[in-house]
Amino acid sequence: MSDTLDLAILRTLAAAAHLGGFGRAADRVGRTQSAVSLQLRRLEAQLGRKLFVKSGRGLVPTEAGEVLLAYAQRLLALNDEALEAVRGQGLNGRVRLGVPQDIADTILPDALARFARAHPEVLLEGRVERQETLTRLLREGAIDLALLFTDERPPEAQDLGEMALTWVAGADWRLPPGQPVPLALLDAPCLFRKAALTTLDAAGMPWRLVFTSPSLGGLWPSIRAGLAITVRVAAFCPPDMVAVEAPTLPPLPKVALRLAYSEAAPPAAVQALAASLRAAVSLRRG
User: Fold this and answer.
1) Angle subtended at Cα 70 by Cα 268 and Cα 46, rounded to the nearest 5 degrees
2) Nearest by Cα to 282 from 259, 254, 261
3) pTM score > 0.85 for this model?
4) How many domains does the chain have?
5) Which residues contact 20 (CB under 8 A, 6 or more apart)?
6) For the segment 163-212, what is each residue's pLDDT rounded down to a tens digit?
7) Is 118 contained in some domain?
8) What are the two backbone dihedrals, phi and then psi, of residue 181, each rounded to the nearest 5 degrees?
9) Do 154 and 261 sit in the same domain of this protein?
């Protein structure tokens, strides 16, 4: 039995974990479902461990599967970076990137560092804006590429998967009995604001708006102070924020994370930066 892990199988493993089943993973990696199932059985035989178990209609990783997935994400990211660096030698030009604040605060530094190492001749320009502004800038051709949380699919976009929205609070926050839910939300229009208010209204839970801001950075002080909670994607929150678990509050919908382009056939430099962002998202999600 080989002591070397097959990266193609690891990519399938990661897809199955991310998408929750062999059928969806097969579509992602361009194989039949039976071929994917055989790949993963061979991997389990190689390792002598069960990697997935059924949960409802989907799959969840076992403890051994969780350990392997963490390593698989790192191995795949390093593999992709090596390919990107070799194939992209001599790449030049300019790329104008737009991201929301929570992406800028979390995965963007590593993604940009990775890209700069591989493509030192490419000029980068970036903007940190609200989702609605980024969508408009893409439409106007003012930026080439944006990473967006969105409930609508832009014309030129690549899905990176659905992300669970989460009620987020400071470490010591508790909902006072009989009191409306105190909220800190971005100014409208905002996808996260809409999700919070729609969910609470549907559950019949009263709420009050304690703090508003045009920027995400303006919300965190009130949340850290325990005055209010907000709705975000947990993987892209500051480390001192905590998720408020059910049944205290009703479950929230999911939101799609997408790479959106300003044109149907983006230049090679834009595609290379998109690859760095995909790898950074994958590592962040673990």
Assistant:
1) 105
2) 259
3) no
4) 3
5) 58, 59, 60
6) 889 999 998 888 888 899 999 999 999 999 999 999 999 999 999 999 99
7) yes
8) -70, 120
9) yes
